[in-house]
Amino acid sequence: MDKGKTKHNTxxxxxxxxxxxxxxxxxxxxxxxxxxxxxGINKALLHYYFRSKEKLFNxxxxxxxxxxxxxxxxxxxxxxxVYVFIETFVDHYLTILKKNPFIPNFIFNExxxxxxxxxxxxxxxxxxxxxxxxxxxQNIAQKKMISxxxxxxIIDLLGMCVFPYVAKPLLEDVFFRDHPAGADNFLxxxxxxxxxxxxxxxxxxQ
Amino acid sequence: MDKGKTKHNTxxxxxxxxxxxxxxxxxxxxxxxxxxxxxGINKALLHYYFRSKEKLFNxxxxxxxxxxxxxxxxxxxxxxxVYVFIETFVDHYLTILKKNPFIPNFIFNExxxxxxxxxxxxxxxxxxxxxxxxxxxQNIAQKKMISxxxxxxIIDLLGMCVFPYVAKPLLEDVFFRDHPAGADNFLxxxxxxxxxxxxxxxxxxQ
DNA sequence: AATCATTTAAACCATTTGGTTAAACTATAT
DNA sequence: ATATAGTTTAACCAAATGGTTTAAATGATT
Lengths: 206, 206
What we know:
Arc Repressor Mutant, subunit A; Tetracycline Repressor, domain 2
C-alpha cells in the first residue's frame, strides 16, 4: 500500500521523468514508453504507480500550474508600492522561467487544446487577483502611478516576461542566428529592461 | 496533373479544413480522418491531393507563419516615426489576431516541439529585422525616443499584443469568470492601452 | 465515344500505443 | 524465515492511426 517506505524513491523519479517528457512533447506527443525510459524503469512499473497516462498527466499539469501561480501570488501584497511589486514579481518570475523555460508553452498549449481542463484545477489553485487589484487601485489613488485598468497591467507584466520564452526558438533564429550567445545575453538584460520600462510607463506626469 | 482546372476547388477545401484542425489540435493531436470529415471528403481523396500528413502539415504551417511575418513586415518602414510604426503595427497585428486567435499558440507549440523545422522556412520567409533596427536607431538619434536596444522593443510589442491570445482560456477563467463579456471588452480596450503605454514609456524625459 | 482526372466506398495493412497479465526475483521488515 | 512491497521481463491485447489498394462511379474534354 504505502509506497513512501521504499528504499528507492521511484515515484519521484517517475514524476520527474514524466514532467520532462510531457513538458517537451505535450500530452499527445508524449509516449508512456519514453517516460519509462527517461525514469530508468519499465512500462509495467509505470502503470503500477500511475494507472493511466491521463492520471499521470494531470498530476504533472496541476503541479506545473500551481508552481507558477504560487510565484505570482508570493509577489502580491495587498498594501504596498507598485514599483516594489514589479521588481519582486519580475525578479521571481524570470528566475523560475530561466529554470523552467518550457513550462509556459506547455501550459498554454494544453489549456488551448483542452480548455475544459481548467475547471479541474481552478478550484484548487487560485491567483490572488483581488489582492493585486486592490494594490493597484491604492497606488493609483495615492497618485504613485497613472490610472489604468489593473487587468491590463498584470497582463502587460506577464506578457513581457513570458513571451521571450514561449517564442525562444523563433527568437534565436530570427535575431541571433549569427551570434548564439546573443539570446542568452538578451534574456539576461531583459529583467532590467522590463523594470525600467514599467517605471517609465507608470510614473505620473510631472 | 493540373488540379487547378477542377470545377470544385477541393484543394482549397482541404487546405482550409487542415488549417482548422491542425491549428486546433496541433500536428500530434490532428487526425487525417478528422481533416477529411471537416473538408467533407474521404480519406483516400485526402491522400490523393497531399501524399502524407507531414506534407499537408508543412503546407499549413508555412502559410500560417508567412501570414504573420508579412503583417509585421508591412508595418516596418526603415525611415519614419516610431510612434507611427507602433500604431500601425499594433493595429494590424491585433486585427489579424482577432481573426486568427489560435495561430500564435499553434506556431509557438510547433516550433517548441520541433525546433529543427525552423530551418525549413527561415530561408523562404524573413522578418525585416534590419529595417526595424535602422528605424529604431534613427529615432533614438533624433531624440524622438529614449535609448533602448531595438530587440527589446520589438519583443515588448509582440509580447503585449500576442500574450492575451496565447493565454486566453486562462484569462477568461481567472479574470472574467463572472462576466463573460469582460474578456472581449478587455481585448477591445487593449489596442488603445498598448499604444498609450508605449508612447508613455518611450517618450524622452522632459 | 473515348480519354482522362476526380471522387467515393470499403476493405485492408502495418505499426504504434496505452494498457494488462503472469511469473519470477529482490530487498526489507517483522 | 516468511510475508510483503517493489521490480523486472516478456509476452500479449485491443484500439487507433497513417496510409494503400482496388473497383467502381462521375464528370469534363476532346
